[in-house]
Amino acid sequence: MNIKAGNVVISSAGHDSGRFMLVVRADGGYVFVADGKERKLDSPKKKNIRHVRRTLSSIELEGLTDKKLRQTLRAFAEKQVTGE
To answer: What is the rounded CA–CA span in Å between residue 73 and residue 52?
Structure first.
C-alpha cells in the first residue's frame, strides 16, 4: 500500500472508524493522520497503516489550515453519502 503525505484515507479501525482523514506524514508501517477537529494538523494521530484505507484523492498540505481541512473532508463525506 503506497500511502504518502497528502493522501485522503478512511479509518477502518479504532474509535474513528469510517472517518475521512488526511495523511500528514508516513513513517514505515505507520501514518500520522489529522481531521482538523479531533486531531489537528499540529498533533496528528499515529495509526497503523493496516488500519486505514486509501482513497484516490489527495490534498495539498502547503497553506492548509484545520478549518480548510475540516471543510474539505466534510465534502468528501457528503460525496460518499450521496453516491457521487
So the answer is: 15
**Which SS3 state, helix, strand or coil, does residue 20 take?**
strand
Kind of pairing, strands 20-27 and 7-11?
A: antiparallel
* Residues in CB range of 61: below 8 A, 6 or more apart: 5, 6, 22, 24
| Residues 6+ away with beta carbon under 8 Å from 9 | 3, 20, 21, 22, 23, 31, 33, 52, 53, 54, 55
Per-residue pLDDT of the chain (84 residues; tens, 9 = 90+): 689 999 999 999 989 999 999 999 999 899 999 999 999 999 999 999 999 999 988 999 999 999 999 999 999 888 876 665
